[in-house]
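step: validate -> pass
step: tokenize input -> pass
step: predict -> running
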Amino acid sequence: MLIGIISKAGIEKSLDLASKIADKISMDHDVWISDVDDIDTYRSKFKDTQLVITLGGDGTILRVARSISSFEIPILGINLGRVGFMTEIPYSDSLKILDEVLKDINKFRIEKRLMLKATGISNNQKFELNALNDIVLGHQSVSRLMDIDVYVDSELMAEYRADGIIISSPSGSTGYSLAAGGPIITPEQKLMLIQPIAPHMSLDVGVVVPDDSKISINIASPNKAVVSADGFDEVVLGEKDKIDVEISKHITRFIRLNNQSDFYKQLTSRLKRDVLKNE
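step: predict -> pass
step: emit ->
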């Protein structure tokens, strides 16, 4: 089996673990190792790769998913980050657990998570962005509200005056959307969430729409805005520009060692928020 190991440059713990894993599994498997920022240089290997192991947190996984999702390669995340909602193996037991997983990887569950696609025009050029977590539209200038019209399937849903708007997948509901007051959604649901950022005198709750919907966002403000996918690939938009967001044809796959219900047990330990404490 060809396995990719993705580490994070500058993080000694990540680089050290990548070396240890490669030494441990190279007797039985073919291995390639890349820093997360250089993963696309190994694109020629993706079609034959059967597993990618990430050494980091959710940010590392987001970067990797954007590159490999079209190749249907499952991700096994080892958590070296702070929250690690998408990771599966704790750093402390990683070598032992990984050894058990690779003995019979086919017995473990594959979790499929939908992705988002945003399309639009910037400076008379078409663009397309893909995201596992979210598509975020915000103002290019600090401390300025935006006027944003949001349509769902060509019907006007809301006229927002806000700092921005988040279109989140279920995976993204524990990220920026949660910080903006959005709900937590179980990761395998098939839907999108429209979540305003600090709305003023307008609809101030998130709205859930089906996975076959198209969300259109019109910019009604005179100043420029920025749209990004998972915090990457920022595109500058001007007044009257529009972006469309819908479900991508690509899916991110994860190796899961536990049942789906484990997601609920992890909420308390990973978020560590008082509202979730059972005291």
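step: describe -> Confidence is low (pLDDT under 50) at residues 273-279.
step: cleanup -> pass
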